[in-house]
Amino acid sequence: MREENCFTLKCEINGEKVEKAVPEDASLLYVLREILHLTGTKEGCGEGECGACTVVVDGKNVNSCIFPAIQAQGSRILTIEGVEKDPRLARIQKAFVDHGAVQCGFCSPGMILSASVLLAENPHPTSQEIRRGLSGNTCRCTGYQAMVDAVKSLG
C-alpha cells in the first residue's frame, strides 16, 4: 500500500476508536475484512445487491462492498462482531438461532444487522414490515419465514 494513495480513516467500530491508513479507493468492506480482520462481514455479489456485506453506519444499513471507506470518516460503525457486546443486539442473534433462521450462515450477519436497524426504528413491526426491513438481504437457504418469525418474537 503506497502511502501517497492513502488517507487516515478515523471512526468508531463496534464501540472502539479506529485510526488506520487505508487506500483512498477502498470500500468499507475491504477495510473491515483485509485491514481490520473483521471477517464476519461477508462479500457476496460485490455489487450491493445481496446484502451479505451489510453493516450499520450511523444507525443506517449500508452495503459495505460499495460504500467508500472515505465516507465512513467520523462515523459509528457496527459489524456482526459488535453484536455480542450489546445484550439488546445479542438477543436478535439468539432469536435467529432459536427460530432456525440460520442455516449456512452466510447471510446471517447482514440479516441480523438489518433486523437491529428495523427494531431500533420500529420495536413492534408487523410481518410485512419485517419482510420489507430484511428485503435488502438475500438468503438461499431458509425461505425467509424463519427470519420473519425470529424478528417477530422480539417485538
Provide a descriptive summary of the structure in words.
- Pathway: Alkaloid degradation; nicotine degradation.
- Residues 7-83 form the 2Fe-2S ferredoxin-type domain.
- It holds the Pfam family Fer2.
- By secondary structure, the protein is α+β, with helices and mostly antiparallel strands.
- It is built from six helices and five strands.
- Strands 2-1-5-3-4 form a five-stranded mixed sheet, sandwiched between helices.
- 41% of the residues are buried.
- The model has no long low-confidence stretch (mean pLDDT 94).
Question: What would you call the structural class?
Answer: alpha+beta
Number of strands: 5
Low-pLDDT residue spans: none
Provide the residue-averaged pLDDT: 94
Radius of gyration: 15 Å
How much of the polypeptide forms β-strand, as a percent range? 15-25%
Number of helices: 6
Q: Numbering strands along the chain, what is their spatial order in the largest sheet?
A: 2-1-5-3-4
Order of helices and strands: EEHEEEHHHHH
Compute the separation of the termini in Å: 46 Å
Give the overall shape, derived from the CA principal axes.
globular
Largest sheet: 5 strands, mixed
Helix share, percent? 25-40%
How is this structure best summarized?
It comes from Candidatus Onthocola gallistercoris. The chain is built from 6 helices and 5 strands, in the order E-E-H-E-E-E-H-H-H-H-H.
Could you name the key traits of this structure?
35% helix, 155 residues, oxidoreductase activity, 2 iron, 2 sulfur cluster binding, 6 helices, iron, globular, alpha+beta, 2Fe2S_fd_BS, iron-sulfur
